[in-house]
């Protein structure tokens, strides 16, 4: 009696790709909505080295950031006026160095705002100097 061969085929369970595509699509939409396409503007600063000889500050402009306002050329001025005056000077002499000195009590955001504004008016050489007493 011939042996009856039963062929057993193992059938794999089908996995539907539809839920996977749905998840990928939802992730794609999530990241598109959560992303920010803001143009980040970097302000290039060079940190001073300790004990290094300072560069020439002859002809440099000094903007002092105080808790009670900005001081430029010996007088307290609003930020727009300081930016306008610095922009005018830098337009005449593009190599002019602008020194920004925040005094104690000035927060970092205020300093960054002033730096950002000075760069926006065309200042290329900007240096942040610290209070020598600290």
Automatic annotation (TrEMBL):
It is a single-pass membrane protein; Single-pass type II membrane protein. One of its GO terms (biological process) is protein transport. Its main location: membrane. One of its GO terms (cellular component) is plasma membrane. The chain crosses the membrane at residues 12-33. InterPro entries: ExbD (IPR003400). GO terms for molecular function: transmembrane transporter activity. It is found in: Cell membrane. Keywords: Cell membrane, Membrane, Protein transport, Transmembrane, Transmembrane helix, Transport. Belongs to the ExbD/TolR family. This is Biopolymer transport protein ExbD/TolR. It comes from Thioalkalivibrio nitratireducens (strain DSM 14787 / UNIQEM 213 / ALEN2). The lineage of its organism: Bacteria, Pseudomonadati, Pseudomonadota, Gammaproteobacteria, Chromatiales.
């Amino acid at each position: 009696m011939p042996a009856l061969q039963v062929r057993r085929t193992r059938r794999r369970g089908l996995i539907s790709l539809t839920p996977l595509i749905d998840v990928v699509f939802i992730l794609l939409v999530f990241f598109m909505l959560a992303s920010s396409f803001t143009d980040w503007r970097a302000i290039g600063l060079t940190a001073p080295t300790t004990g290094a000889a300072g560069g020439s500050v002859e002809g440099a402009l000094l903007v002092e950031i105080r808790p009670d306002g900005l001081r430029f050329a010996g007088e307290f001025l609003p930020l727009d006026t300081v930016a306008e005056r610095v922009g005018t000077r830098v337009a005449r002499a593009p190599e002019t160095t602008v020194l920004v000195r925040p005094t104690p009590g000035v927060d970092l955001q205020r300093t960054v705002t002033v730096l950002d504004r000075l760069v926006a008016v065309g200042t290329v050489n900007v240096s942040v100097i610290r209070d020598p007493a600290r």
